Amino acid sequence: MHDVIVVIGPGSIGQAIARRVSTGKKVLLADIRQENAEAAAETLANAGFETAVTSVDISSRESVEALVQKATSMGQVFGVIHAAGVSPSQASPQTILKVDLYGTALILEEFGNVIARGGSCVVIASQSGHRLGPLSIEQSKALAMTPADDLLALPFLAQDAVNDSLHAYQLSKRGNALRVMAEAVRWGKRGARVNTISPGIIITPLANDELRGPRGDGYRRMIGLSPAGRAGTPDEVGSVAALLMGTDGAFITGSDFLMDGGVTSSYWFGELAPEQ
C-alpha cells in the first residue's frame, strides 16, 4: 500500500512543500487547470518523484469527492498540501469566499474522512487573516464550526456585508485558520494532524505579477517597512511545512504559523499602521 501526498494548487509553494515531504511516496497533483498540474508533475518527475495528475475545482463538492476517490485509489492518503485559492486582485468578493473559505472547508471535511493515522495536512492561508480586526466569539465559532454547505449563508458573509475583495480575502483566511483549529479535533480522532501557515509576500510568479500591477507600490512599501526588509521564498515556507508535516512536528496541530517577515508586526505596532 503506497502512501499518497495530495498537492492541491501545485504552484511554487505547493511544489516546495511537496519536495520536502514526498520522498518515497506517490504525489497526486491537482489544479483547476490540469495543464498546471501537468507542468508541476513534469518538474517533480524530473527530480525523481512518482507523480500523477488530475483537475479539481475546490469550490465544488462533487469535484473534491472525485479528487478524494482518485487519491484513495492510489493508496492511503498520508499528506495533504492545500495551496489553492484566488487572490483579491483576481476575483470578486463572492468568488473569493466560495473558493478560499468554502473550498478549504470542503477539502478539510472530505480529506478528514480518509486521512491515514500519522498523516497530516498543511493549509496555506495568508498574513491577510491577521490584519482583520477582531471578530466576535459567535462569528469566530461560526466560521470554525458551521457545516461547510451552510457557510456562505452566514449573515455576516452576505453580499451586502462583504463588498470588497480584500475584506472577503481577510475573512476567508481568518476562517481557514479557525476552521483548521476545529478540524484538528476531528482529525485527531483518526490520529492525524492539520495546521495552517499564513505567509506574507512570497516571491512566486503570481507575486511578481502583483508587484508589477496596480498594488505594486503598496507591496513594495510593505516589504520595505517590515522588520525583515525583504520578501520570502517558497523554500522558506517549505521548511516550516516540512516541520509541521513530519515527525518533529508531531505535537503541533490546530495551529497557525504566521511567516511574513514581520509585516503584521509593523501593521499593528509599527510604520505600516493605518492612519486612524
Describe this entry's structure for a reader.
- It is a single chain.
- This protein has 276 residues and is an alpha/beta fold.
- Helix content is 46%, strand content 15%.
- The chain has a seven-stranded parallel sheet with strand order 3-2-1-4-5-6-7, with helices on both faces.
- The longest helix is centred in the middle third of the chain and has 24 residues, at 165-188.
- The radius of gyration is 18 Å and the shape is globular.
- The chain starts with a strand and ends in a 7-residue tail after the last helix.
- The mean pLDDT is 96.
Mind sketching the topology for me?
Blueprint: E1 3-8, H1 12-21, E2 26-31, H2 34-46, E3 50-55, H3 61-74, E4 76-82, H4 93-112, E5 120-124, H5 137-145, H6 165-188, E6 193-199, H7 205-212, H8 216-224, H9 234-245, E7 256-259, H10 263-269
Parallel strand pairs: 1-2, 1-4, 2-3, 4-5, 5-6, 6-7
Helix pairs in contact: 1-9, 3-4, 4-6, 5-6, 7-8
